[in-house]
Amino acid sequence: MSYEIIGITVLWTFLYGYVIVASIDFGAGFFSYYASVTGKGNVVKKVINRYLSPVWEVTNVFLIFFYIGLVGFFPEVSFYYGTALLVPGSIAVILLAIRGSYYAFHHYGSKARSWYQLLYGATGLLIPASLSTVFTISEGGYIEVAGPDVSLNYSALFTSSYSWAVILLAIVSVLYISACFLTFYAHKAGDQEAYAVLRKYALSWSAPTILASILVFWAMSSHNSVHFEKMLDLSWMFVLSFLFFLGAVYLIWKKKRPGISFILVMLQFAFAFYGYGAAHLPYLLYPYLTIYGSFTNDTMAITLIIAFLAGFFLLVPSLYLLMRLFLFNNDYVQGRK
Amino acid sequence: MFEYDPVLYSRILTGLTLAVHTIFSTLGVGVPLLIALAEWIGIKRNDDHYHLLAKRWARGYIITVAVGVVTGTAIALQLSLLWPKFMQVAGQTISLPLFLETFAFFFEAIFLGIYLYTWDRFKNKMYHLLLLIPAALGATASGFFITTVNSFMNAPLGFTYENGVLSNINPFAAMFNPATPTKVSHVLSSAYLTAAFVLAAISAVALLRGRNHVYHKKALHLSMTVAFVFAVTTALVGDLSGKYLANYQPEKLAAAEWHFETVEEASLILGGILEEDGEIKYALEIPYALSILAHGTPDAEVTGLEEFPEENWPPLVVHYMFDTMVGIGMALALISFLYLFFYKKKKWNPYNKPLLMMIAAGGPLAMIAIEAGWFFAEEGRQPWIIRGVMKTAEGATTSQNVDLMLYLFAALYLILIVSAAAVLIRTFKGNPAEKELEKTGLDRRDGDEL
């Protein structure tokens, strides 16, 4: 395997990790707010906070990791995306900043404030929408390159059916992934009331998720036919993804094996996400940047891969410890510790 | 305000983000050490006052960490959004420390999360303390790695750059450049010093308000001892940094000291005003001191600004930032020394009002010194973004709308700082240490010796 492929695979894996953990977090913010508006606040809030409190900081790192790795392995990316994404990038950063700090203010400050919760819930949906523009732009057609000048064509971006389809998919998937995880967590906590509420959320967001995915496929076929053709070549991955989806929804519906059902959700997104990514290669930004044209020098690539392996051996046991203490510890989950 | 110029606005926005981030990241590096010390002493002496101290410090710390994390995310992404061409070069040469910094941060985030939620989960309190060690190490390591990136910008090494093409890259040479040792040790020791002074100031204010509980005295003593140790370290490293500058970045030192002509037996200038014609008025001159600072002997020759083309001069206003940093640093060393001296002399009262007031002022002053030091370091590197390789203007974005982003971020930071301060004040005012001590029954240990 070439360094380029190793590099992009590592990064894609971190991005996948971010998609999962951030979705749980973003969706939880929304559900927590929605539940308190509809009078079920206290039922689900306890479950949500028990999970989120020790991990909110870690979520953010996945994104930074992906970004720093991307800049390190593919420095050319900085030039194109950095110049073009000033406004959407800054807005995403501002939303992330509001969300992160108000989470802490809300939970560690002396008194909880309801408008902190509103900020937290609203940003949970706006952030995936703003971050997903990066995926949209990567398909090409929204960036204009004239010599040293790179600019984003906002009217093309905002009038394109593809970009709206991606935003829609991002938001509904966040809600779906989050509801599925929280259903599992509530079940583990033995909190029947919260389980019933969250299970309803999970089931009601499942159909929109699949519909939005189909919409994205359809919109891509007209926007970037090269990428669409390549995705058809990998259609087995998307078929598998759909089967995992059916399995997950079936288990949640039948109230069976909530742990397995969340693993199926993760597999559903893993196959769709890696299938999408593999078909996107070799382009990082269609048609200007490929992973080969933008790769860093060999010395740095080897050093980064070694650093990554070393860091990996440090991180995996630490993450395992975190999960043992807070996610897979029945006493903690059930509120006895 | 100004005519639209993406370079100028990018510089202001970067400066603003870093100025805000520095407040929180300095505490982020320094405070875990003090929390760990408090908990360790608590275990060793079986003194619950120290446990409460660690707990209360951690409770405030987490609020500052949150703002530190989000402003850190902002600066990380702004590097690419505002300086895309700089990051193209940086990505080729120094992505290793950037990458490692994220690992360190990851490590810290995991263990800090565990630490904060396991106060009563382990029978042996030592296990809980052990969790703080990786968190503190992670905080220090991320400070270390990110400072090597900044060092590289001051003393670029480990590559050749010709006609816009980079070659012969050596990531380790880039990371361990000549600026790295002094910069890293100065950043770390001043962060410990500042965190200690900020925490000491909190205790001093409590004592000044007549809250005489031994808890506050223990807190004050611990933080002032740490402050003194790192005040001395910071001063020593500061002296080494002066010698580094004289050898590798003489134009920065010369600009800081308004030292125009290359002469021997150079004197150090404190304060003053620079007139249009290059005359310095109202300044205090210390003979030979600059030669000693630069090369360690009173008769050494110190390079003046005249040796450099004027377009490569740093802005001369850095003189005031340098003076502020050094002046406050000296004052902090003196205050912490006085406290310890009074404390050792059995008959003298270390809690006398003037001394407590000085300690209380020391907290904010230390933060001002950190800001002044960073502004000196960064402005003193102008007009280069990578000294001798790339001018700041060449690295900036060409994008429109940087002005709009500046206003948005300025509003964001204002809101964040005001909210964080309000939350911190509310958290501690409503629940003072005395009340918590009473509630937990710790008050009976009141008569303990220090």
Automatic annotation (TrEMBL), chain A:
Membrane topology category: Multi-pass membrane protein
Transmembrane portions of the chain: 6-34, 55-73, 79-98, 118-142, 162-186, 198-219, 234-253, 260-279, 299-327
Principal location class: membrane
Entry-linked InterPro entries: Cyt-d_oxidase_su2
Subcellular compartments: Cell membrane
Pfam families: Cyt_bd_oxida_II
Keyword Mitochondrion: no
Domain of life: Bacteria
UniProt keyword terms in alphabetical order: Cell membrane, Membrane, Transmembrane, Transmembrane helix
A GO term from the CC aspect: plasma membrane
Similarity comment: family membership: Belongs to the cytochrome ubiquinol oxidase subunit 2 family.
Identification of the protein by name: Cytochrome d ubiquinol oxidase subunit II
Upper taxonomic lineage: Bacteria, Bacillati, Bacillota, Bacilli, Bacillales
TrEMBL record, chain B:
GO cellular component, one term: cytochrome complex
Alphabetized UniProt keyword annotations: Cell membrane, Electron transport, Heme, Iron, Membrane, Metal-binding, Transmembrane, Transmembrane helix, Transport
Biological process terms in GO annotation: aerobic electron transport chain
GO MF annotation, one: metal ion binding
InterPro entries membership: Cyt-d_ubiquinol_oxidase_su_1
Pfam families named among the record's database cross-references: Cyt_bd_oxida_I
Intracellular or extracellular location(s): Cell membrane
Family (UniProt): Belongs to the cytochrome ubiquinol oxidase subunit 1 family.
PANTHER family per record: CYTOCHROME BD MENAQUINOL OXIDASE SUBUNIT I-RELATED (PTHR30365:SF14), CYTOCHROME D UBIQUINOL OXIDASE (PTHR30365)
Name under which the protein is recorded: Cytochrome ubiquinol oxidase subunit I
Species assigned in the record: Metabacillus mangrovi
